[in-house]
Input
Amino acid sequence: QVTLKESGPVLVKPTETLTLTCTVSGFSLSNARMGVSWIRQPPGKALEWLAHIFSNDEKSYSTSLKSRLTISKDTSKSQVVLTMTNMDPVDTATYYCARIPRHTATTFDYWGQGTLVTVSS
Amino acid sequence: AIRITQSPSSLSASTGDRVTITCRASQGISSYLAWYQQKPGKAPKLLIYAASTLQSGVPSRFSGSGSGTDFTLTISCLQSEDFATYYCQQYYSPDGVTFGGGTKVEIK
Output
């Protein structure tokens, strides 16, 4: 059974750095065909892709947020970590991690439940 | 970046209706388009990928079509559990994926 679960702070202050962890089970981060992505959704708004990482450590970032994002993985812990620097209230959103089932097609077949992060002083 | 315009942003329909949602890409994306369903407070669920391939376990009343810049999601006979928000997503661009703005399907 494939599962993903996000964890991290529920509240961060403006200018702080957000660190989110996605812990996966039911598949391996060393699987050559698969990857994990981070996607966010501000309250009442649409989905926004942030970044993804594959087993070969290939990474890709949203062009608009690239300077603020870092994605990494720890295969032994089955975890993917996203850091976002210089948080702002507009970054308030539910953050999801999701599995990419095929390296050649970046769709998302399994999602975590999401974690709501609020940016406020 | 490839922009995805989804329409309508919302619609009202009745159980049993046929519903159509469209997405238009700002440039050709071949068939690299997926559709998701999202219910309130829940994560999105993959319905269709490669524009027309039904994800395993998704009811056959859902179908997708299109290629290039224009795509359609059709629900042939709307069921009560289909009232939700639907998103399209392109994955053609090497710069990363983008989502449409969403279509909320409400009960008439």
Summary: The first strand of chain A starts at residue 3 and ends at 7. The CA atoms of residues 52 and 58 of chain A lie 8 Å apart. The radius of gyration of chain A is 14 Å.
